């Protein structure tokens, strides 16, 4: 399959029946926890900004950046878990397992690419 033939998220949506209600996502059941975790990460980022404003030691700033990256990785893994258990499973029931698997692996690939 070439890159131009790779199914996209848009293609997966086009194949799905139109819904008028709010869709259930893989993270819907834990949305409050997810939002709390993201707000905490947001606060950590603001903390780094203050550290730079205060001319803190480089290694201390880098340590905080590392902590934020770890927290974001944990959020990403949780989202991937929910996506597999809900969205991919639902897609398989609807006969879209190839499209969903391709989309999942592309997302995993993006998460793994780090400088």
Automatic annotation (TrEMBL):
InterPro entries noted in UniProt: Metal_Tscrpt_repr, Metal_Tscrpt_repr_sf
Pfam family, one: Trns_repr_metal
Keyword Glycoprotein: no
Biased amino acid composition, Basic and acidic residues: 7-18
Amino acid composition bias (Polar residues), ranges on this chain: 21-34
Region (Disordered) location: 1-34
Keywords: Copper
Assigned protein family: Belongs to the CsoR family.
Listed name of the protein: Metal-sensitive transcriptional regulator
Species of the source: Actinomadura vinacea
């Amino acid at each position: 399959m070439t890159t131009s033939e790779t199914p996209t998220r848009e293609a997966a949506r086009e194949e799905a029946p139109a819904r008028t209600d709010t869709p259930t996502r893989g993270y819907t059941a834990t949305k409050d926890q997810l939002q709390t975790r993201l707000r905490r990460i947001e606060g950590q980022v603001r903390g780094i900004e203050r550290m730079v404003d205060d001319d803190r030691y480089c290694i201390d700033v880098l340590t905080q950046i590392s902590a934020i990256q770890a927290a974001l990785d944990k959020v990403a893994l949780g989202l991937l878990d929910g996506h597999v258990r809900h969205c991919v499973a639902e897609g398989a029931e609807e006969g879209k397992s190839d499209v969903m698997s391709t989309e999942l692996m592309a997302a995993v690939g993006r998460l793994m690419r780090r400088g």
